[in-house]
Fold this protein.
Amino acid sequence: MKKSYSYILDQLPYAHPFLFVDEILNAHDTGIDGSYTFKADADFYSGHFKNNPVTPGVILTECCAQIGLVCLGIYLMGKDEAEKTVGISMSSSEMDFLLPVFPGERVKVISELKYFRFQKLKCHVKMYNEQDKLVCKGILAGMMR
């Protein structure tokens, strides 16, 4: 039976059009996996790039942060604590981009916990496309509040 992680999605401090999490696939004490499909009609595609739309790297980073950092933080805090207060501010990101993501593509983000102490969360993230090819990877850190 598939476990429900709807409480994590319910606690996210984002809304359309800046929500880049469709589903949490798996969550545990050492990481989280989730997915998102980039909407073909998203505003940023009209100018990035003209006649050849590609998802901006900053949006790929945001998707990795929402799934790999914020969702993981909510999970690690626990359902009851997350309902009281959820907030995170990203303190650092170091990302490498390897492949483009085009409008309409579904990606999967896999996050592995590096540490969570004193409300600081740091993790390694990897994003894969539907062909299971690595799109980008990096290290993200933030403060839970």
In short: The two ends are 33 Å apart (CA to CA). The mean pLDDT is 92. The chain has three helices and six strands.
